[in-house]
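Lab notebook, bench 4. The sequencing result for the construct came back, and we need a structural model before the next group meeting so we can plan mutations. Quick request posted to the team channel:

Model the 3D structure of this chain.
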Amino acid sequence: MTESARTPVGNHRSLSYEEMLRDRTLDNEQRDALVAEMLVAYIAVLLVRRGDAPTARLMLLVERWSLEWDEENREKDLTLEVDPANKHHFTQDLVEKLKGLCCEVSDRFNLGVNWVVVQESLPVVGPGWRELVQREISGERPTNQARRLQPGPRRWLEDNLAFTNEGEQRVYQALKNRQESVLPSQESISIFPLPNGRIARRTLEPDFLVTYKGRAGILEIDGPHHNARRALDTTRDHLMHDSGIAYVDRVPVEALDNPAELEQVIDRFLRRLAEAR
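Done. Here's the predicted structure in token form:
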């Protein structure tokens, strides 16, 4: 089994998956990883754009994806791994829906992947398994998001909190720096990454909920195609304001690779949150 990387292979972060597949320097393992990630991405995006947000949210529960050789049918299958606690969400009807989307995308790009398998993920376990079991029994397993992606060991995990990508962890680190090294202890902040909650008329899954000086604020990370969603986000912001959130701000994706710019965004967010009425 070839596990995919969480980020595009090589230095192609600005390219589409179709363009990345044209890279002749990719070896077979890299190409399989890229194809698996491409299929998962297209399935999730198509679900959203076709109005099936509940199933798209379930795709965020997938921890790992890979292509696995099916000896009987002489083809590669798309294998999705999910936490055992989430496996029950992936009913036979749901898997059939994912298969249909997988075939649709695979046929479009001539990828040769026509089957989807969903299985429980296995943790990385070593001689310290007794301590691992005891910690999880004691509730020390990362639990800040029940419906979001749970990363594998040693990947985007800090202070027993899990993050879905490196960008979220960088924002957390910037907020944490303000919490521990900049703000006075009597006027510090609380940081809640990837919480799930309910506001008026919808379920909310913000990137960060931050409390500061008696006010609650939401900090989101914008994607590269955020402009197309501006009207939707504005409506969502209004709903959050109406539900008691004092201030909502966004981190431009470009700031994630610029520490100085990220610090400016965080300081602006905290300042405006403190002044919010």
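Residues 2-120 form one domain.
Will bring this to the meeting.
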